[in-house]
Amino acid sequence: MITVVSGLPRSGTSLLMQMLEAGGLPLQFDGARRADVHNLRGYYEDRRVMSLAADHSWLAEADGMGLKVVSLLLYDLPSHLEYRVIFMRRDMEEILRSQDKMLADTAPEQVGADIRRHFEKHLEELAKWLPQQDHIQWMELEFRSVIEAPLEAAGRVAEFLQQELDLEAMAAVIEPSLYRQRVE
Amino acid sequence: MFGPKVKIEPALYESLKKAAQAVGCSSVDEFIINILEKAAAETERVESEEEVRKRLQGLGYIE
After folding, report:
1. Mutation site for B-interface testing, chosen from A74, A121, A123 by largest number of B Cβ within 10 Å
2. Which of A4, A17, A62, A179 has the fewest Cβ atoms surrounding its Cβ within 10 A?
3. Complex ipTM, two decimals?
């Protein structure tokens, strides 16, 4: 069973990876994408995930581990393996604000683009697709609830994963000061 | 219903009429509207997926 952390970019997936690491779950990532001003503690990504559709021969290595897979690439997970997907949800306005900050550095021509309805459609399609996949069990986790009640969120994650995780250590990862795009 | 009308060839209409009967649609109009709704939804899905893909590339999450 592979634990997959997924969601839209800037929905809290890296944060959840940090929590899982603190809780004692081994993680699969290559460290190629370095920590930066947008993700001060790192991205926890494995670049091979980007080409899963072409080559998933390595994926069985991640059995028993946590792996970050951005939402659109969930479709590329091969069905001969089994996954528990934790899908991060966050206020769309917060996601868009945070993405625009990143895009200013990586693709400034996309800053402010009208992407909201496309993200909403994408999430709608995924919500229909996920329950139909026999090889995927999934849960949703709200970013704000993780920030506001980290111990409770850690407990929900451990219960879903059916793993003995260090819940206190997971909760200790949370620093509300890093919640920088909050929409009231 | 008084809405926009689309002209189609009689031969195509006959073909659609037979297809509508085969799947148990109560009318050719209903059958055609179902097909067009599905096509429009699929076009929208593909368009959104492409826009999301471009955004994720811009953010460095996919190649």
Report:
1. A121
2. A179
3. 0.79
